[in-house]
Amino acid sequence: MAERYEVVVIGGGAVGENVAGRVAAGGLRTVLVEKELVGGECSYWACMPSKALLRPGEAIMAARRTPGARAALSGDIDVDEALRRRDALASHWDDSGQVEWLESAGVDFVRGRARLVDERKVNVIEPDGSMRELEAARAVVVATGSVAAMPPIKGLAEAAPWDSRKATTARSVPESLIVMGGGAVGAEMAQAWRTLGSHKVSLIESQDRLLPGEAAVVGAALAQSFTDMGIEVRTGTRVVSVERRDGSIFAELDDGEVLSAQELIVAVGRKPATEDLGLESIGLQAGEYLRVDDRLCVVDVPAGWLYAVGDVNGRNLFTHMGKYQARMAADVILGKKALAWADATANTRVIFTDPQVAAVGLTAESARNKGLKVRSVEHPFGAVAGAAALGEGIEGHCELVIDEDRGIIVGATFIGPGAGELLHAATIAIVGEVPLERLWHAVPAFPTVSEVWLRMMEKYGL
Description:
Blueprint: E1 3-10, H1 14-25, E2 30-34, H2 40-44, H3 47-64, H4 79-89, H5 96-104, E3 107-111, E4 113-118, E5 121-125, E6 131-142, E7 146-148, H6 164-169, E8 176-180, H7 184-196, E9 200-205, H8 216-228, E10 231-235, E11 239-245, E12 248-253, E13 258-261, E14 263-266, E15 270-272, E16 306-308, H9 319-333, H10 342-345, E17 348-351, E18 356-361, H11 364-369, E19 374-380, H12 385-390, E20 397-403, E21 408-416, H13 423-431, H14 436-439, H15 451-460
Parallel strand pairs: 1-2, 1-6, 2-3, 6-16, 8-9, 8-14, 9-10
Antiparallel strand pairs: 4-5, 5-6, 7-15, 11-12, 12-13, 17-18, 18-21, 19-20, 20-21
């Protein structure tokens, strides 16, 4: 006999936890199914361990910029201590605390591999091989996330490279490293392992700049910073073949040059974790993103019972945006008035490199591609008193993208130390569609880096 619930959630990462907790808090009997660790990618293999690996180098670089503090620096980073801190932030890959939270939130938990077998019906194979049948009276929510993509490059799979999981959980610092992919993951991992002690790091990006989805100034600033810290940056270059032999990995580039290193990280993108969900049983294609409408309801499934939130729907591959979608989907399932839209208009992203890169909304290029009449207003990150207080040689860039017809901000980019802390003000301005004439009266405290807002308002002509 099937166990009946009102909501069945497949996937126990941060996104699945959020939707399950919210619908349970709304009074719906809910079960969450997870085959690995409750807390998911972000907690154990991405956000938390990667930031722990980046933090020692970030602290050292901040001290070096600060007169008086730099004199206190001596010796090298304690790698063993840094890795112990990484392990602690990843809860030593123990999800018992997360499972306890689910139970305290009134969510039943089943550990196992879930597969859709019919409309509203899910079978779960538990670790001991036994099967449980679950049936959802109201909704099934797919929150299985994404996995690292492995491009079809000759010899790559056989060379056993590091994917994002191996890159964040390695037990020692590689002597040398090749990183394929200049997006957020590749950039962060190149910096993390370089500052932790990798003597030679080569970062390869096939497009013409790092972080190609952001404004062009971002890639240029990051490439210069990486070069200064001893990372070799190669853009407009592709790896065409890979071989592991004699304890090293050899990567042949499209210009015929061969690079060698102890390890190679593949960080060229993600793909949806939908290969083994039984999607074919309800007429969907395995391995594809699940297309959703603004209620997060899967559009290719009739009757409106199947929802997809987070990476698995391909709308916005960031944990915080997936959690936002989870809240929206939960409210729809609960019958509240809810409409998901911020993940398309005010999507926030931070890359925790040095300099830190923070952006929200549209770039000037993407805004113009949408047909908007926009004007960009720029100001150097370091040209305010708050930046000077952070230390010497503070550089960076701040930019607002302004919709001229409506007089509102539709995008913002900040590059500099701690730039992510400037982001939420821009997000509020974009989500609230705050007119610039009104925003002019939001007075930044002195001396803070937020004074760049005043300078950009002045440059706009207010």
